[in-house]
Amino acid sequence: MSSVTATRTPNSVTSSRRGGNTGLWLVMLAQLMLVLDATVVNVALPHIATDLHFSRSDLSWVLNGYAVAFGGLLLLGGRIGDVVGRRRTFLIGVAAFTAFSLLGGLATSPTLLVVARAFQGLGAAFAAPSVLALITTNAPDEGSRNRALALFSAIASMGGAIGLILGGVLTDTANWRWTLFINVPIGLLVLVAVPRLVGETPRRPGRFDVVGAVAATGGAVAIVWALIQAPDYGWFSTRTIGSLAIGAALIALLAFTERRVAHPLLRPQLLRSPSRVGALAAMAATYGGMLAMFFLMVQYLEDQLHFTPLVTGLAFLPMPLSIFAMSRIIPRLVERVGAARLVIVGAALRVIAFLPLTQLNPQTNFALVAAALVATGISAGMTFMPLTTLALRNVEPEHAGAASGLFQTMQQLGGAVGLAIVASTFAAFAVPGDFTIGGRAGFWAATILSALALAAVMGPAMRRQREA
Questions:
Q1: Widest CA span in the chain
Q2: Pair 213, 75: CB distance under 8 Å
Q3: Closest C-alpha among 35, 85, 79, 70 to residue 401
Q4: Are 330 and 383 in contact (CB under 8 A)?
Q5: This model's pTM is above 0.85
Q6: FRET partner for 324 with CA separation of 20 to 30 A, picked from 86, 153, 219, 430?
Q7: Rounded to whole angstroms, what are the CA distances from 297 to 240, 281, 301?
Q8: pLDDT tens digit string along 223-280?
Q9: Rounded to whole angstroms, what are the CA distances from 399 to 264, 303, 405?
Q10: How many angstroms separate the CA atoms of 330 and 380, rounded?
C-alpha cells in the first residue's frame, strides 16, 4: 500500500482514474459483504444452536455480537479514517473482517463464535465509514452524489434480505459454516485489488477519542445485554436494572466527554440540525424494525410452516427485488418531491405492511406474508436513500467521516436494540411448540418501532412547515 500524504498526490489521482468504476464496485462489494453479515447467519441459527449447543437466550448474540461491535465502534472507525486515510482504514477493516470470518467458520464453541462475530463487527466498523465518506467527498455534483447514495442505500437496504437468501442457499447446499467462509475469498479480492484501483484520501491531523469509543461501545453492550437477558432474569431484577443503569451512565459519560475533548468522536455540531437528528432516529427505528422482522419471519417460516433454509431464504426474494426497483427511481423523486416527504410515505407504508403480521396464525395464507414482504421492500427503498441524504446534508467534507460513522452507528445500534427488544418480547410471550403467540407479540413490537420511525421524521417536517 502506498504511503499516505497530507494531500492527494498525482499518482493517487491517476490510480483512482485508472480504476474508474471497477474500484468503486469493489468497494461497494465490500460494503455489501459487511451488510450481509448482519443477517446471513440468521437462517442458519437453528443449525448453529444444534451444532454448538447454544441456549435459546444466548443465540441472538450470534447476530447482536456483530451488530453491537459494528455500531459501537463505527464512530471511532470514521475518526480513524479521517486521520490516517480512508483507504488505509478501509483495508485494515476488511483484513480484520476476513480473518475473523475464517475463525468464526471454524468455531467449536458458542463463546468462540460470538467472539469471532464481535471482531468481525470491529473490522466492519473500521471499513464501513470510509465507503460512505469516499462517496460524499468525491461526487462531482448533486445528481452524481444522489445516484451514488442510491447505490449505497440499495446495498444497505437490500443487504439484509440478500443475506437471508444467501444464508439459506449456503446452509442447505453446504452447512452453516459457509455463511462465514464465503467472506474469505471476497475479502482477499478486495485487499489485493483496491490498493491498485482506488486512490488514498488526504489525512487530517488529530487525536483519537479513546474515552468516547469505550463509553459508546460499553454503553451499547450493557443496554443490549439487559434487553436480551430480561426475559430470563426479569425486567425488574437487579441484573437487568443494573445493566441498564451502567449503559445509561456510559452514554452520559459519552455526552459529557464529547463536549470537552479537542477531537471528539461524536461532534456535537452534527446534532444541532433537527432534520439530521430526526433522520438518525428514524434510521435507528427503521433498521431495528426490519432486523426484528427478519428474525421473527425466519422462525415463522421454518418452525411454523416447516420451510427448509433454502426455501426460507428464497421466500425473502420479493424484498430485494422491490428495493432494487425502487432504487432506480428514488434519486429522481428526491429531486422532485423532497427527501422528507418520501421518508414519511415509506415509513407509513412499512407500518401498514407490518400490521397483518401481528395477526399470523397457522392458517395464514403465504400470499399475505409475501405481500407484506413486497410492501416492506418498497418502503425500505423509499426511505433508506432519502434518510442518508437528510443525515449528510450540509456536512463539511472534513467531517464526512464522522457524519457517515454517526449515521451507520445509529443504523447498527438501532438494529441491535430493536432486535433485542423484539426478541425479548417474543421470548416473554412464547409458548413451546407454538410460534404464533410469541410471534404476534414480537411483530407488534416491530410495528411500534416502525411507527416511531414515522414520528421521528414527521416532527422536523411539521416544524419546518409551521416556520414556513
A1: 65
A2: yes
A3: 79
A4: no
A5: no
A6: 86
A7: 27, 24, 6
A8: 878 887 777 777 788 988 999 999 999 989 988 888 887 777 777 777 888 888 888 9
A9: 11, 47, 10
A10: 11
Residue type, 397: P
Report which residue type is found at 139: A
CB 266 within 8 A of CB 212: yes
Q: Which of 86, 89, 48 is nearest to 65 (CA)?
A: 48
Question: Could you give phi then psi for residue 273, rounded to 5 degrees?
Answer: -95, 115
Is-contact 408 284, C-beta < 8 A? Answer: no
- For residue 406, pLDDT over 90 is answered with no
Number of other CB atoms surrounding residue 280 within 10 Å: 24
Task: Say if CB 98 and CB 46 are below 8 A apart.
Answer: no
Tell me how many degrees the CA angle 375-378-380 measures, rounded to the nearest 5: 110
Residue 460, CB-side half-sphere exposure with 13 Å CA sphere:
22
Q: What percent of the chain has pLDDT over 90?
A: 22
Residues in a beta bridge with 434: 431
Taking the C-alpha atoms of residue 286 and residue 407, their distance in angstroms, rounded to an integer, is: 13
